[in-house]
Recover the amino acids of this structure.
DNA sequence: TCTGGGGTCCTAGGACCC
DNA sequence: TCTGGGGTCCTAGGACCC
């Protein structure tokens, strides 16, 4: 058996821990540049605010209804997530952290499933202050189905879904688009084949599904029939690391773009080192504003392979600059840019490249450790590369950000 | 005026080989 | 006139997820 533990309205719940005045009113959390809605309280959902909706379209209505909008505070959410995950680990030993606000754990079918769920829901609420929903079922896909029911429960937020008749009953009321793993495209194709409900999908012939929609959709069908195809996974080492942003104002100068992208490289490389990995390639991408259709549209990316795997920011900066030179075009107003580090491997399992002695690699790694230690001790960007701008970055708008209650001494909550 | 960011996996087709 | 057949590996892009 699997259990899926998912924090309710996670970003909003994090904010409410330290701002109780936000309880019982409509609250939304916005993406970078205060662009889109990425989390909604139950009250905001009730006002009809949809996920990923551009905030400017609903701002007037939302505020008129007494709603509060907050910029995203990822430091806070990451820290609260860490607390939740560590409690899950204490309780269930092995867990799969599936996203910032949800995790899978394994249970035995002989366990007292509902009681375990309920107890754990109460524990998280008491010790961290966020409410979690828990869906328990024989496959991950059915856990996702179960948790939808759990979230609708007024109080206990736990739902166990094992019985075939019950699964069938719920699937009859579920459209295929709402099944985990079925997206817009697949749903359209299924509809074309005459399959509209989850139950129709469950009973569809596997061979046909595999042939026309691929192996993933076939797995989904099997999972709906209680055959577990998706196992627990380990996400502790990412296989790629992305750092990208939309800018508040568009940029057309090469130098300005290069300077900003160097910040992305810096941040991606830091994360690379924090997970004790090396990467051997970097993709640079740039794009114009896709919503300004009157402007000339352009987007492009370039992959620069490195001669050997490294975690040395300087190497990635050089590669980025080369890549950017290949794709940069004059006369374009760039709105978005970013980098992806690829071909990531564990730094302790490194394949030696014959051209470079392990001594050189060791030197580079020591250099970067020193770099990171200094910045950890004396503050971010105490040391930085010449291509970067000094000081913090001010090119994104975060007008309504709350304090870093749990990660900054200056921002600790004040008790009156 | 204003529209996010970060991931994973699969697959078709190209390049290359014999 | 007419131009094989079988295989592997890699990669860009698609589809999906939160």
């Amino acid at each position: 058996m699997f259990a899926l533990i998912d924090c309710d309205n996670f970003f909003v719940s994090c904010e409410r821990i330290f701002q109780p005045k936000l309880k019982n009113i409509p609250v939304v959390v916005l993406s970078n540049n205060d662009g889109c809605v990425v989390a909604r309280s139950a009250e905001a959902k009730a006002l009809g605010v949809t996920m990923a909706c551009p905030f400017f379209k609903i701002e007037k209505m939302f505020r008129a209804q007494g709603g509060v909008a907050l910029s995203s505070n990822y430091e806070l959410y990451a820290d609260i997530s860490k607390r939740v995950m560590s409690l899950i680990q204490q309780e269930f030993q092995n867990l799969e952290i599936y996203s910032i606000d949800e995790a899978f754990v394994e249970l035995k079918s002989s366990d007292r499933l509902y009681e375990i769920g309920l107890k754990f829901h109460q524990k998280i609420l008491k010790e961290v202050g966020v409410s979690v929903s828990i869906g328990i079922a024989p496959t991950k896909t059915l856990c996702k189905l179960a948790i939808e029911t759990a979230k609708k429960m007024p109080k206990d937020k736990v739902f166990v879904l094992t019985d075939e008749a019950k699964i069938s009953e719920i699937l009859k009321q579920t459209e295929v688009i709402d099944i985990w793993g079925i997206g817009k495209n697949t749903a359209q194709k299924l509809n074309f084949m005459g399959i509209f409900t989850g139950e129709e999908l469950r009973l569809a012939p596997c061979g046909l599904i595999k042939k026309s929609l691929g192996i993933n959709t076939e797995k989904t069908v099997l999972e709906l029939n209680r055959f577990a195809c998706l196992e627990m996974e380990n996400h502790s080492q990412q296989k790629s690391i992305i750092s990208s942003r939309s800018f508040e104002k568009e940029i057309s100068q090469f130098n300005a773009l290069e300077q900003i992208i160097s910040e992305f490289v810096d941040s991606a490389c830091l994360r690379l080192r924090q997970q004790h990995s090396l990467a051997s390639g970097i993709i640079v991408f740039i794009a114009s504003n896709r919503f300004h259709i009157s402007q000339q549209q352009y987007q492009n990316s370039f992959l620069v392979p490195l001669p050997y795997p490294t975690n040395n920011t300087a190497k990635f900066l050089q590669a980025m600059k080369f890549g950017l030179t290949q794709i940069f075009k004059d006369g374009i107003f760039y709105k978005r840019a970013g980098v992806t580090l690829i071909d990531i491997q564990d730094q302790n399992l490194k394949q030696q490249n014959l051209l470079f002695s392990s001594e050189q690699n060791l030197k580079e790694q020591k250099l970067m450790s020193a770099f990171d230690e200094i910045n950890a001790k004396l503050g971010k960007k105490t040391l930085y590369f010449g291509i970067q701008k000094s000081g913090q970055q001010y090119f994104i708008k975060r007008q309504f950000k709350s304090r870093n209650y749990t990660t900054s001494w200056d921002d600790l909550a004040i008790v009156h």
Q: What stands out?
A: The first strand of chain A starts at residue 2 and ends at 7. The radius of gyration of chain A is 24 Å.
